[in-house]
Amino acid sequence: MKYVINGVRYHVDTWGTGFPLLLLHGFTGNSEGWKEFAPFWKDHSKTIALDIIGHGKSGSPPDIGQYQIEESAAVINSLLEKMGIGKIDVLGYSMGGRLALTFAVNYPEKVRKLILESASPGLRTEAERHERRIQDKKLSEKIQHEGIKNFIDYWENIPLFHSQKSLPEKIRTRIRSQRLANSIDGLANSLNGMGTGVQPSWWDELAHLEMPVLLITGNLDQKFCRIAEEMSKILPNVKWKTAEDAGHAIHVEKPELFGTIVSGFLSQTGENNTNGSKD
């Protein structure tokens, strides 16, 4: 399905029946990456998989302001209104996790449950954000000067995705095809408009989120395990699951485990989790 919001075309895939579940992919990804989870979630969730601005089949406008993470959260709110949806569950991975958290902070009344896979509330200090903006600007210039293929060659080999090297070739080829389907302008503008260096820090807002939150990390991704540990000490109603022998993208590396964990969390009713509980 296609929706036009603020002059930008947004692509949305839906499947399943039940309570609405919004899925938000990571940087260089798209909604296709979630389709293998239909068997896990289709009976209890009406899944709404969005191509985030600058990705997949959604538009890649030149205005950086339209990529800002709070603007993208407002777009999600408008999308839900167009779809006649009042309240949802939200699952976001990496960049999509930052967007999911931003939506929950800005529209807490719209979120029943929040699932964050390898996600961060942002950087705490302006000095850290300034340094990250410089790094993201260099990456965006790399995309523009060298093209998508050369950038994806580089991106696939950063340490964050090292654990994906052991995946079957069929899966790695599928992920690469999804990444290559993006546009130069879309990825470059996404880095400059929605990167960690330009988004607000949500650390101080975590204590105010009352909805049940599930944090999922891979034990090989030590950076995001540390972030999840810090978040779990602040969020009032949180569970933290760690997948063994998995890196940043648990849904890619351990799909059956990921699908089962998410399904279990969404199917629970009336939970009142202890702050910082970890399984």
- The largest beta-sheet arranges its strands as 1-2-4-3-5-6-7-8-9
What's the Cα radius of gyration? 17 Å
* Extended strand count: 9
The sequence of SSEs as H and E is: EEEHEHEHEHHHEHEHHE
**Proportion of strand residues:** 15-25%
Number of helices: 9
* Percent helix range: 40-55%
Mind summarizing the main beta sheet?
Answer: 9 strands, mixed
Quote the average pLDDT. Answer: 94
Structural class: alpha/beta
What does this protein structure show overall?
Belongs to the AB hydrolase superfamily. MenH family. This is Putative 2-succinyl-6-hydroxy-2,4-cyclohexadiene-1-carboxylate synthase. Its EC number is 4.2.99.20. It is an enzyme of class 4 (lyase). Monomer. The protein has helices at 38-41, 69-83, 95-106, 126-155, 169-180, 184-194, 222-232, 250-253, 255-267; strands at 2-5, 8-15, 19-24, 45-50, 88-93, 111-117, 213-218, 238-243, 277-278. It is an alpha/beta fold and 279 residues long. The protein has a 9-stranded mixed β-sheet with strand order 1-2-4-3-5-6-7-8-9, with helices on both faces. Strand 5 (88-93), helix 3 (95-106) and strand 6 (111-117) form a beta-alpha-beta unit. Helix 2 (69-83) crosses helix 3 and helix 4 (126-155) runs antiparallel to helix 6.
List the helices and strands and how they pair.
Elements: E1 2-5, E2 8-15, E3 19-24, H1 38-41, E4 45-50, H2 69-83, E5 88-93, H3 95-106, E6 111-117, H4 126-155, H5 169-180, H6 184-194, E7 213-218, H7 222-232, E8 238-243, H8 250-253, H9 255-267, E9 277-278
Helix pairs in contact: 2-3, 4-6
Gist?
InterPro entries: AB_hydrolase_1 (IPR000073), AB_hydrolase_fold (IPR029058), SHCHC_synthase_MenH (IPR022485). By secondary structure, the chain is of the alpha/beta class. It has helices spanning 38-41, 69-83, 95-106, 126-155, 169-180, 184-194, 222-232, 250-253, 255-267, and strands at 2-5, 8-15, 19-24, 45-50, 88-93, 111-117, 213-218, 238-243, 277-278.
